[in-house]
Amino acid sequence: MKYLKTFPSGSIRLAAVLAAATPASLAIATPAFSQEALEIEANVALVTDYRFRGISLSDNDIALQGGFDISSESGFYAGVWGSGIEPVGGSELELDIYAGYGFEAGGVAFDIGALMYTYPGSSDTHYLEFYGSAGFAAAGLESTFGFAYAPEQDNIGNDDNLYLYYEGAYPLGDSGLSLTGSVGYETGSFGDPDGDGDDKWDWSLGVGWTALGVDWSLAYIDSSEDIGAGNGTGVLMISKAF
Questions:
Q1: Helices then strands (H, E): number in the chain?
Q2: Hey, where are the domains in the chain?
Q3: Which CATH superfamily is domain 24-241 in?
């Protein structure tokens, strides 16, 4: 699934959209999915700081997050995801609505789609973003390269925005721990939160594990931006998928 963005009115996710562990299947007839069996997946999480692309969306405070996805056997999916945030245009809720298509070719998992960022209760703040990624595993290392592109829109200052990133995960033997890391680069409407004229970089390094029936992750997240919302910090996430 953002960082505190700069809308025309002035406002500013390493947000993890959780994968469901035990999806429920059922047959539903819709134009998009026809008579295919659908999987419904839900997730909920508590984070000590809602970070997106290195920048805090929750004013460096705790946030409750969750959502659900519907996916078909053919690879099409749609869903919603929400999180508490620092007020944006009077709204304290970010609600993301998205749809896409995932498929595998040559041992690489591809994902393409579109996402609408909305803030219920506010106006002139929603905007559309297109995304894509390619993931593969080699020598135990799971790697994902991806992009997110928001075309020029009124609600993002009549400019476009591009985010490029790499994410990796590597299991630490039989410990049950996985080492995780990421690096991202952003340019355009959201690419210079501190206004110094340089594009933004963000990075993270952490570990993930499962215990007590829930998933845990602890990561150090930082950015190149000289603002409070972008300073390095440790973020703990407790999550559960259904």
A1: 0, 15
A2: 24-241
A3: monomeric porin ompg (2.40.160.40)
